[in-house]
Amino acid sequence: MERGRGKGNFTCFTPETVENCGFGGGGSSARAVMEDTYLSLQEMKEMKAEEGIVLPDIEFDFRFDVGAFFDYYPIDVTAFAKYIGMNASVLRQYVTGLREPKEDTIKRIREGIDKLSRDLGMNLMVEKPPVSYV
What are the angstrom distances between the C-alpha of 113 and each of 32, 70, 88, 119, 120? Predict the structure, then answer.
């Protein structure tokens, strides 16, 4: 899934076909693109059924570019940039599609996401206040 320049310009496509059918979608958000992609699958199933062809059930494995990732997951870009030691203004430009990150930058962002995932999985959440206030 990719975010184009500007607001509300998201698209995705399948790199492979099934019964010579490709699937994809477009929309104003990453979630809208996912819904549109599933709708394209349903529409294609109906069209193929009229031809006597049964399309198998398909499970999509969505891959996000930087902009689509931050649209789909409600993560504060500035806070995440600080977390991985990146300039927040530059990361925002990647997120909005004004600049395209190089491969090493994508790797750095991916490693930051992995680190955040591990840190959140450490179960360090506070369950109750350590001090009671009256």
Answer: 23, 11, 15, 10, 10
